[in-house]
Specification:
Length: 137
């Protein structure tokens, strides 16, 4: 029995790009840091929340690259001669990637109490009915 991928399924035409996006997302190197939530805030809106305690707004960047939302964080090393007896708060960089469907737009980003909120909205698709004329060959 032959295993069919989504892009090669006979009833799924034009979904090759979606399959490539899923593969790219799986390879994006997202580890478990920082932790995040994704919530549906209404029928057509979502909110991604990342726990970014210790990061200032200037340490974070949010970009949209080819339908992929990329959130990066890089803290400046401000040790300034400090001597740590224990350093349990990591000052490491991160990158989190989320693949967005067509029609999903990035709204505002809000920093609040060590949490970064990124709001997304999805445009409601229009129902289009089109009649195709059959010509004689």
């Amino acid at each position: 029995m032959t295993k069919l991928s989504m892009g090669s399924h006979p009833y799924m035409l034009g979904f090759e790009q979606l399959e490539r996006l899923l593969e790219r997302s799986a390879k994006s190197g997202n580890e478990g840091y920082p932790p995040f939530n994704i919530e549906q805030t209404s029928e057509n809106s979502y909110r991604i929340t990342l726990a970014v305690a210790g990061f200032a707004e200037g340490d974070l960047s949010i970009t949209l690259e080819d339908r992929q939302l990329v959130i990066r964080g890089r803290q400046r090393d401000d040790a300034d001669g400090r001597v740590y007896l224990h350093r349990g708060i990591a000052a490491r960089q991160f990158q989190r990637s989320f693949v967005l469907a067509d029609g999903v737009e990035v709204g505002e980003a809000i920093m609040e109490n060590g949490l970064l909120h990124v709001d997304l909205t999805r445009a409601a698709p229009e129902t289009v009915v089109q009649t195709i004329k059959i010509n004689k060959g």
